[in-house]
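Section: Multi-chain targets

For targets with more than one molecule, the full set of components is provided together so that the structure can be written out for the assembly as a whole rather than chain by chain. Components appear in the order listed by the source. The example entry contains two components.
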Amino acid sequence: MTAAARLVARVAAAWLATWLVGWSLVELAPGAPAETAARTAAALPPDAAQAGRAAVIDRVAHELALDGNAATRAARALGRAARLAPGPSWRDRRSALTVARPHAGATVARALATTALALALGLALPLALARRRGGAAALAALAGVAIAVPLVWLCHLALAIAPTHALSSTAAIAVTALAPAAAIALHLGAQLTRADTSPLAIAIAARGVSRRRWHARHALALAAAGLAPLVASTVGFALAAAPVVERALALPGAGRTLVAAAASGDAPVVLTLAGAAAALVALVSGGAQLVARALDPRLEGAR
Amino acid sequence: MIRRLALAWLALVALAALAAELLASDRAIVASLGGELRWRPPAPRAAFTADDWGLWPPIAYDPIAVRTAGELTPLAPPSAAHHLGTDDRGRDVAARLIHGARTSATLAAVATALATALALGLGVALARAGTTARALGGAAVDALASAPALLVALAAGALLGAHAAWALGLLVAVPRGADTARLVAARLEVELAAPHVEAARALGASPLSILLRHALPAVRPVVGAAAAITAATAVLSEAALSFLGLGPPPPTPSWGELLAQATQHDLRAWLSIPAGLAVTLTAAALFALALAPARASR
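Its structure, encoded as tokens over all components, is:
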């Protein structure tokens, strides 16, 4: 199997696995899926008689193909997911893809920009601090706090410092990039500390190469392959942060669509967005592994 | 030094969580009512006569009861009566902050216990499995571990309709447990191939004895650090989910709910700063504990 085929298989598996697990949760939730769908669509009057409720649930089950037993329903849901046609939204009967699509591009673009910014900050900070006395301790303290600050609070700080500028994608990217940048900086800082005491570093220093050049040309290259998984997890973090950041900063995006769908119990839309996020993380993760193997051929042998 | 500070802060949070009723409540801790000494009597302060006395909590307000009789003002700034002000329903913020520690601590404890159990179970199974089972299991664990914990909790909580602290703890625990399982399995594989384990095997030690006496003690540092990270993730996830309205159901007090209120009400500082600091310091303390062994080894 070629690398590209493996990547496609990985993305497809992530999409389908999300649907399989997600649909299992729908079936495990209290109440039949048709009843939840009827409640989501506000088609179930709370004061309706038992017979009236049953009739409404039967009608909704028929309309949304939620009749039959659990296995039949799961097979239908997986079949639709495999055809990339996740079916209608339980709330307003539009296609779940149509509901999920608006502003999804903006969320993905922000996630990718966040990853780029986090990578740039995470690389720059340890390199800048590595040459200073106590730099490692300062880096650890800075990164430890940056990872621990809740995103909501960072959004509050952004809104308090610059109320007009904070309501922009740039603020969202900066706020979201802080924690992954800290994680990357911590990882790289540890790698640089280890590399600085290696025989290679001593040999290179003996040949008169400056510490800055050693870090930029050699140590960074040695650490680059180890950064690949962090890049993938940064994309995942940025996608997971989207609901919080988009809501706090009043930005349009797929995160707000997900929260609205989650609050109303609109399973097809939740599964479409969660599946798409899982597929994107799988794509970036697979891509990052390919890049890591290109950077460090030893990883190819270890596979 | 950092480790001690972190432990001291976590001890404070644990104390607040365990003794919340004694620290913030509108009921006396001990009172003498009509000459009878009673432990936490249900009588309000107004019901006390001149002959009665009571030992009151430092914050003598209930975190949940909404008073509409004009006693409290909604969104009142900090004052002598309410040291951290009141929220949008006139409830004391300090009382909700202390009781919110219980919500966060419960979620963190549930998530950590479940994730650790899952990590050890999966890790041992993966380390001892055959080649095919290990490849399949490894792929499944990789898929679970790569899922962002917050997204999993949000989506799965919505699909299950579960917003109780234990359910959110479970949802945070699954991806974190899977992530730790990979580390546990890798460490166990190394340990099970070590010369001292070979020697124990040659001396007739059973697989269970080898696992319990030789292999599992070696994964303790990995599991300990991962547990601290899981607890921190749970605290941060609770804040995010409560902010989104998908956390513990109202009127449960929680730090995330105070942050959500701050967003709704022009970023009132007395709602945002104490809750934000509480989450940040707790998560930072847990991360500091997780990173302590790595720092010490350097």
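Residues 93-128 of chain B form the longest helix (36 residues).
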